[in-house]
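FW: tagging you since you asked about this chain on Friday. Here's the raw sequence from the shared folder, copied in full. Didn't touch anything.
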Amino acid sequence: MPETTDLDAGEPDPAGTGAAGRSPRRSVRTQRWMRWLHVYTSMISLLLVLFFGLTGLTLNHPTWTFGDDPSRDVVDGTLPAEVLPTADAAAASGDADSADVDFLAVSEYVRDEFGVHGSVTDYGVSGDQGAISYKAAGYAADITFDVATGAFTLVVDQQGLVGVMNDLHKGRDTGSSWSWVIDVAAVVLVVVALTGLAIQLVYRKRRRTALALAGAFAAVSIVLMVIGRG
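HL: got it, structure written out here
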């Protein structure tokens, strides 16, 4: 009965395909390094893969809010006199409506009084109406106010936890720090994929099957992307 060698049992082929020029020791060292890199990048990316996988499902099914439905709050009030254009500014401009508005003071007031957060995405004056808009993941707030009287309306829309996670998945209204997280996650996942493929290629008995599966699923993915474009 013939003996079963390590290579026949599915162990790595240290010398690759038998080509000259590479020492078995160097090849084995490379394989071990790839395994180490694959294992630890996989552990680092575990939560990221789970996060982007789950939020991929919720993005594809926007009605899945799990009871945490979007909400809208509307607040009416009057801005304090100290954040409105002063009488001197109005007199200098000749028109109270066109006097300079201290948008920073208005913004700090609504943040302190009503807990408004997020980045300011737009502000300005049109006629006698001033406006400031705020955006964050799963969150939007808009305040419009009368420049002369200070009467304002604040509208706050919150999308719930699922909405926040969906915006994080898309990188929408998240800021530069989360953009870095997405970039790092993308690089780590690419490393996991490439090292996993490389590890499969050094196993003689798995090599052909691994390449066949990779090619087949790549072809299916391309077909689905073309169909998905509509």
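FW: Residues 1-9, 14-21, 87-98 have pLDDT under 50 and may be disordered.
HL: agreed, and The chain is about 50% helix and 15% strand.
FW: great, closing this out.
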